[in-house]
Amino acid sequence: QNFASEDYQSTAGFAFILILLSALCFLWFLADLTATMRSLSQGMFASLVPTAGVVFITAFVAAAATVLTPLFPIGHSPLEGGDPKTAATAYIFFTGIALGLLGLAGIAGALLMSAAATVAHRGGLLARWAEVLIVVGAVIAAIGTWIFFFPILLVVLWVLVASVRRTIAHRRGVLHPLP
Question: What tens digit of pLDDT does each residue of 26-35 get?
Fold first, then answer.
């Protein structure tokens, strides 16, 4: 395949812009989640939430950038005098690095999920069965991401569910913003 075509480069650029926008949205979610966790507890788990969240999003964005990097350079097509084997080797190398970063993101996401669920349960915002379900999902995400990419989507799903749940709880008056 000729990855130096305009189509591949524009798709990779657009994908990376979407990833950066989603990272900003995640940081907004993380700030709100951190405020909620700190209003419920000042313990270690509440302190782990922002740290794990920042490590998660940093590793995730770095993995995406590493996977998309080989799609940007021009000059590796045979028509331009480049060596396709070198491009393929670079792509395989960068993909290996990206998978390692996704593994790190999976572990950080699992810590984020587990810590937030534990603090929410202790603060009375979450039932015990929901905490157990989240922790089991976190373990699957942490272990599974090293083997197969898709379990990291459990972290993304958790972020969506937690955002909706947080919004509903705030509208019902269960949660109040910090002064």
Answer: 998 898 888 8
